[in-house]
User: What shape does this take?
Amino acid sequence: MVDEEYIDDREVARILGKSVVTVRNWRCKGYDYGPRFFKIGHSVRYRRSDVHNWLESCVVDPAARNDGRAA
Assistant: This one.
């Protein structure tokens, strides 16, 4: 097993270019949005790899979009 780096919401916000409030809102609202996280007692931690994987899942390829408009 590879040692993972666990980070807090401040570091997640820095990586994603979002505010800490936004990251916390994603987590607390219960939506299926935002990276996976661990809740250990009162602490919340994210695996750095999960944050980067989630970010990659947000990539939109404009060439692959089919929204019905002519090119």
About this structure: The chain has a mean pLDDT of 88. The two ends are 47 Å apart (CA to CA). DSSP finds three helices and three strands in the chain.
